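Need tokens for this chain, all 71 residues.
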Amino acid sequence: GLPVAPGMVAVDPDVIPLGSRVFINGVEYLAADTGGAIKGNIIDIAMETHKEADDFGRRAAEVWFIAPQEQ
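Here are the structure tokens for all 71 residues:
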């Protein structure tokens, strides 16, 4: 896979397919990772630093996604 970097999110691939474009509060991200704690309607947004992630915390948000087209 890809190394995790800002602009990426971890998702549950049973909910949001990997490779999807994900829009959270008008900001676009790439669904490029999964995680053991990422189940159902939980998304983990990659941040520049651990402090930035701590400061951001947990939030409820409206999420839209566009799944990648099958080839």
